[in-house]
From TrEMBL:
It comes from Anaerobutyricum hallii. This is PTS glucitol/sorbitol transporter subunit IIC. InterPro entries: PTS_IID_sorb (IPR004699). The keyword Iron does not apply. The gene is srlA. GO terms for cellular component: membrane.
Amino acid sequence: MNILVKLASGFMNLFTLGGEQFVSWVTGIIPTVLMLLLLMNAIIALAGDESVNKLARVCTKNPILRYLVLPFVSAFMLGNPMALSMGKFMPEFYKPAYYASATYHCHTNNGIFPHINASELFVWLGIANGISTLKLDTTPLAVRYLLVGLVANFISGWVTEFTTRYVEKQQGVKLSRTLKTSEN
């Protein structure tokens, strides 16, 4: 009987812990993401849809802008996970590759810009702690992490673009290469 009681108690504890996690999200990450979403939508409203769409068209034309500049600026300005939402201004074909690049930018830029992904700062701090224990400056490591990340994130986006092209051929579909707006 004690085994059944312990199993039932453990089972209910699972839901209690899940509820505590949910409450932490409701009081932590969800309001932050909501405020970032409101900020992004306010900026878009102030700049105008056409200005944002024009920027997306300019960025779409060049892989360096598409997978290096736009994801980096989005990660820096909006942080994780809001940086990923800038993909909504990309044509369908480029969205998977933008997502791949932007996702990595939210991680590799964390050493110098911890506001980008504060929830993963513990990874950077763990590595930096080892460097600090050796009485070394962490800044060179952070700069190297950023620079290697910029290159790797760009490659990630570009390789994903080639993968998307391959999957298009394999599946016999053709994703749009132009941004669909309410004007067109």
